[in-house]
Please model this.
Amino acid sequence: MFFAQLKNELWKLFGKKRTYIGFGAFLLVQTLMLLMFKFTRWESEFEKLLAGNGYLAADYISALTVALLMLMPQVLLLLPLYVALVGGDLVAKEAEDGTLRMILSRPISRFRLLLVKWLAGVVFSALLVVVLNAVALGFARLLFPWQGLFVFAPIHQIFQVFSPGAGLALYAFSSLFIVANAIAQLSVAFMFSCFNIKPAAATILSLSYLFMNMVLENIPFFSSYKNWFITHHFDSWLQVFTSPTPWAQIFQSEITLFAISATAFLIGAVVFQMRDIKS
Amino acid sequence: MISLHQVQKKFGARLAVADLTLTVPRGEVFGLLGHNGAGKSTAIGMMLGQVWPTRGTVQVCGHDVTTHRARALHKVGAIFEAPAFYDYLSGWRNLEILSHYSAPTTAARIREVVAWVGLTGREHSKVKTYSHGMRARLALAQALLPQPDLLILDEPGNGLDPEGIAEMRRTIARLHRELGLTILLSSHQLAEVEQLCTRIAVLNQGRKVFEGLVADVKAERGRVQLRTPDFAAATALLRERGVITDAVDGKFITLGEGRTIAEATQLLVGANFAVDGIWQQDQTLEDFYLSLIKPPPAETN
Model:
């Protein structure tokens, strides 16, 4: 029954057109970014950067490098936006549409209902990340050669080069951490969705939480408190490209993201349990 | 089948249901009446474990809904005012989804219910293409899927045209007759309640003001209709002699305690009033309901 209920939640989720907004937006943004990389001065600037550090541009201006560069802003801004949109809808939209009342006239427990809904959201998040990463790489490959991976993220003090094989393995591995980011953001939106508010309000609140973290993390006064900000832990996926890999830091971040997801789910479940469901 | 004992529900400071005690016996069609905001939907919400009572106990099918919701609702189907569905999915998929929140349901059972409500042939169309009447049938189908013993219907005729309302009424009667279901019907359609229900309860501003058999309500003595060319003078005489206590609308009189129609007729004829007709009028449920319901206090700015 549990899997039948989960399957039904997935039917509901993927039956809605708005679920695909994120996928569509990624395709559009990636196309635009790719064209900018190809047809602006970016390529020559990048060649200079590589040459200045003693690397051959021909070896590292590649599909992998461009795909990773395209991912950076999308993982930071677009991915949270689209998972928040879906997470904010999961419960609040059903309450708004009246279907929640129909469901809760059945003998399913509220906790179980939330669990299957949240798991459906987790599946969506994972799928969105896989599609995002695969499409970024696939699109980049259309215009750039299959060469080594060059990772340049000055904010995180990352400057690394990898062979094509190692680069691809790390690129795939990093998506696991992007999935963890997406699930944490989805869980926060899901928590707000369990309150008696509109779906848009749940999405906005969860994005406000994200941006508040982002702003505070970048204020020098708070630099010693960076572990308290969710956005700091969202950087783990980039940390896998550093050498030596800071496993302890990555592990701490993943545990924190898991704790945020679990706490958000539990708060949502408690609030939902106490709520009156009215038309 | 349903038992509410001293149930109270407050939303903040507002008292939505006050000390409601109600019993719906097995096999009955029970009508729940009341004006908008009287507390009917809140009471139904409490029966379905959707609204938590502030005080009191709610039992459905012998189980406390607040503590053993799953057991209490195992054999319960419900339809709400303006039933909501996943419009972007087919009727069939909606039924599959909703049925899986109760128990595993076979395709054969879904087909059976679809046929029973008369949706065969349209079950694979998207719900957004359905008319109001078809949505009402789909709502009924989802309520019947778990093979319920009890059906809770909250304003099932709302939004339907007269033909749809009549069809819904026939269907409810059929459900009771053919499947032997216990039905709780909350409705504004007093004629519908009068035709379908064996027992009713009336809520007014969150309080129960009546519970009893529809047959008893109808058997109660109603008003007397008097047809005479000079209604005002005739009723003035009857009132002066203490035969009636009230006269309204130029045709209705209310006899005094112990007074009879024969007495009134004799008096009028004796005073040379032309009496075209005088007869006892059966009390309708509407008359009874309106006599019970006091209008809610006027809103003030």
Q: What stands out?
A: Chain B has a mean pLDDT of 87. Residues 204 and 293 of chain B are 6 Å apart (CA to CA). Chain B touches chain A through 39 residues (CB under 8 Å).
